[in-house]
Amino acid sequence: IGGVVALFFALPPKNFFRIVIAAAGVFTVATQWLLKGCVVTRAEQRLTGGKMTMMDPFLMLAGLPADRNTRIAATLGMGTALSATLVWSLICDFIRGPWGLPGL
What we know:
Blueprint: H1 2-10, H2 16-35, H3 39-48, H4 56-61, H5 68-95
């Protein structure tokens, strides 16, 4: 995910691929909201029989319990914040004028 976000900010403003990356981010977060968590993590847990997720070490470092509710809240919160940042960046790109000045 970090590489995709780095690519998003490395591309020039008003680039078509920035829109694609932001749309994919919004779609991913929407599926997490609708399905209450990450589908890939649930599939991995069913295949391995484990309950550990990528989020657990970060939750433990923060002193939070690594239960289902905390994982969902952390995943949705971070995903929503990341998507909102990408969308806000796109909005700012298209508001900015041709020379980087405010206006048309």
